[in-house]
Design a protein that fits this description.
By secondary structure, the chain is mostly beta strands. The protein is built from 1 helix and 9 strands. The strands form 2 sheets. Strands 5-4-7-2-9 form a 5-stranded antiparallel beta sheet. Strands 1-8-3-6 form a 4-stranded antiparallel beta sheet, with no helix packed on it.
């Protein structure tokens, strides 16, 4: 109800300290991330500017726009992230190679 888009998919990720997840960008999908348990460092960048935020409270999240590269470093054991997406899973929406992401973002 209070999210900035209509939710099409929700998933959770559970990981332990020092695990890194993500490492990709989405061409179209928006993601809103919250830490439900533990502590997670989120890094996002658009190919030019990088932002790092640490999430540790379930009422504070970060919006990762489409066209941004993102990764998450789990800082505590049993950390849990919940992600709300505006699109269903689409394999072709992902960019997994950072150099390809840079080339793709330079064309925007």
């Amino acid at each position: 109800k209070n999210l900035p888009f209509k939710v099409a998919r929700v998933f959770t990720v559970k990981a332990n300290a020092n695990e890194i997840r993500g490492n990709h960008a989405h061409k179209k999908c928006l993601q809103l991330m919250f830490c439900l348990n533990g502590k997670i460092r989120i890094r996002i960048d658009n190919g030019y500017k990088k932002i790092t935020k640490t999430l540790s409270k379930p009422n504070l999240g970060i919006l990762v726009p489409n066209g941004f590269w993102a990764n998450q470093t789990y800082l505590e054991n049993n950390s849990i992230m919940i992600v709300f997406c505006n699109r269903k899973y689409e394999k072709d929406d992902y960019i997994h190679d950072y150099k390809k992401f840079q080339s793709w973002s330079n064309q925007l």
